[in-house]
Automatic annotation (TrEMBL):
Keywords of the record: Hydrolase, Membrane, Protease, Signal, Transmembrane, Transmembrane helix
Region (Disordered): 438-492
PROSITE patterns: PEPTIDASE_A1 (PS51767)
Listed transmembrane segments: 502-526
Secreted keyword on record: no
Extent of Low complexity compositional bias: 461-484
Pfam name, any one: Asp
Secretion signal, residue range per the UniProt entry: 1-21
Peptidase A1 domain span: 64-400
Matches recorded under Gene3D superfamilies: Acid Proteases
Highest taxon, organism lineage: Eukaryota
Protein name: Acid protease
Family recorded in the similarity comment: Belongs to the peptidase A1 family.
Length: 564
């Protein structure tokens, strides 16, 4: 069972034919069940390797999972609309393994997971819906390393069946082009004759801060989905896309238009961005330049670049609602401000005494091969979604929204008021502390510097807006070569003046201690010299402090360091 996961039973309605309704329990994975060390930093067997800046356990936080029965055994799998394949960490006993070894690349928000294994098949049951022979990749992970790291057993793809399933291609290559048992799970469902679409709705808890789960239906509209039938049909772009990619024309942030563009060049229309819609991308992601355009418009926000990963994090005032809408053509899809920023629960220990809020949508610096932006649950929470696989032609997506900005703003203010989130630390101060934590001197003076910085009331509570004055925040980054902290806005002089009295006091104290030690050494030498004729055995006189014995000289008269 996944810690902190919430449950909601959802009906899987299998069209207008007389079949038993399948039921799925969707869970949202909130926390990695382990320490969540980055996959790239762990020594892993060759069958399970990660590449990139991302932390696979961080990627898994927030994804939606369901329990399926594969070969009569329960598996907790991530549901994704970005893939059509299925893989699990270890095949069940009741399965047939085929001699089709293969390497499977699974992309997540900040990296790629390389999985090695063999193709296998077994009966698959989702609720009451059953496929007698479902192909999947059996990752050779007998020690369940992946589950220990990520808290799930694998992936169940609900992507386009025309996405050239890696597993299906491998099976057809070995068994012949007419072989069908290697095809995707979603294709097997549609072969029963049900309409070729699925609907998705992610539900919030009553306090609005969390999502309790969601519902998926196959081949039939729930009653509360009737309005989606009249929503605009958004065709895939390009029309032959193997993934759920569409075009976004612009963003609107706080009433200001933010233009978008595609890095894919002449292959796509100018002045638009290609967007992938994937349930398994937690908060979604944007190119870092566009991420800065969005979060940099929050008054008082401060940007920090992690020198270890080069990833961008925006520290934002918790009480400021960000107004963001995506435009597809002339149709606006606004996002709830609670989906755009969050309390940084996994913040470093030096920040634990204060509340810190950060961006929910991530940024990336590399180049994606087939899209610019990913719409994760931060977007999908705000719409009812219908994915049509081509019931009457080409595939398309429909979004239906009832989001009202005035109501969303009121809800945000209610749940982000200071009495509920606690004492907040100014974003500028947070960035200063993060820089110090990533500097070499932090390891030598960690306790003192942390106490000074976090214990300063004026710094923690000073008015926001000092960094970007309501415009774009200035970047702060550590020097990757030296590991030191580099200020991006020229505040080093102010910091030096602020701490100069403390520095002078410490220097004076050290000088005084040095003089005392020298005096004690001279007295000890004189005393020993006067008694040398009476006794040939040197001895020392311990100096007592606060009831503890602190030895300053060894028996041979040499100086003894504190703590040695």
């Amino acid at each position: 069972m996944i810690p902190s996961a919430s449950f909601v039973a959802t009906a899987l309605l299998l069209g207008g034919v007389a079949v038993n309704a399948a039921s799925i329990d969707l869970r949202q994975l909130k926390r990695s069940p382990t320490t969540g060390a980055p996959l790239t930093l762990r020594k892993r067997d060759s069958h399970l390797m990660g590449h990139g800046d991302g932390d696979i356990s961080t990627f898994m936080e927030g994804v939606y999972t369901a329990t399926v029965q594969l070969g009569g055994q329960d598996y907790n799998v991530v549901l994704t609309t970005g893939s059509s394949d299925m893989w699990v960490d270890t095949a069940p006993a009741e399965s047939e393994t085929w001699d089709y070894p293969m390497t499977f690349l699974y992309e997540y928000s900040n990296g790629t997971l390389t999985l090695e294994g063999t193709v296998a098949s077994a009966p698959l049951q989702l609720g009451t819906y059953r496929v007698e022979e479902q192909a999947f990749l059996d990752v050779d992970d007998k020690t369940h390393d992946f589950f220990k790291l990520a808290g799930v057993n694998g992936i169940l793809g609900l992507g386009l069946d025309r996405s050239n399933s890696t597993i299906d291609m491998a099976v057809k290559e070995k068994e012949g082009a007419e072989t069908t048992w290697g095809q995707s799970f979603i294709y097997n469902m549609f072969e029963t004759g049900i309409p070729k679409y699925i609907t998705l709705n992610l539900e919030r808890t009553e306090d609005l801060n969390e999502v309790s789960g969601g519902s998926i239906t196959i081949g039939e509209l729930p009653e509360h989905y009737e309005a989606i039938k009249d929503a605009p049909k958004i065709e895939l772009y390009p029309p032959t896309s193997p993934r759920w990619t569409i075009v976004v024309d612009k963003f609107e942030v706080g009433g200001e238009t933010v233009r978008v563009h595609s890095h894919l060049g002449a292959a796509h229309r100018a002045g638009v961005a290609l967007v992938e819609t994937d349930l398994a991308t937690p908060g979604g992601y944007l190119p870092t330049t566009l991420l800065d355009e969005v979060y940099g418009k929050i008054p008082g926000a401060a940007k920090w670049i992690n020198p270890a990963t080069n990833n961008t994090r925006w520290i934002v005032p918790c009480s400021h609602p960000l107004q963001l809408s995506y435009y597809v053509g002339e149709h606006e899809y606004p996002l709830h401000p609670l989906d755009l920023t969050r309390v940084w629960e996994e913040r470093p220990a030096d920040l634990q005494d204060y509340t810190v809020c950060v961006n929910t949508i991530s940024g990336y610096n590399d180049v994606k091969p087939d899209h610019d932006i990913s719409l994760g649950y931060s977007f999908l929470r705000n719409v009812h979604t219908l994915f049509d696989f081509g019931t009457n032609g080409n595939p398309y997506i429909q979004f239906y929204t009832e989001r009202d900005w005035t109501k969303s703003q009121e809800e945000f203010a209610l749940h982000r008021e200071p009495s509920k989130i606690g004492k907040e630390m100014n974003p500028d101060v947070v960035v200063d502390l993060l820089e110090k934590m990533n500097s070499p001197s932090h390891h030598h003076h960690q306790s003192g510097s942390a106490a000074t910085a976090t214990g300063s009331e004026p710094e923690a509570s000073r008015p926001t807006g000092s960094r970007n004055s309501g415009s774009r925040g200035s970047a702060r980054t550590g020097d990757a070569d030296s590991g030191g902290a580099v200020a991006g806005d020229g505040t080093d002089d102010g910091t030096l003046k602020k701490y100069m009295p403390v520095i002078l006091g410490l220097l004076g104290g050290n000088l005084l201690v040095g003089l005392v030690l020298i005096g004690l050494a001279i007295l000890n030498y004189v005393k020993r010299s006067g008694q040398a004729k009476k006794s040939g055995t040197p001895h020392y006189v311990p100096v007592m402090k606060d009831g503890d014995q602190q030895v300053l000289f060894d028996s041979d008269g040499s100086s003894k360091r504190y703590g040695s």
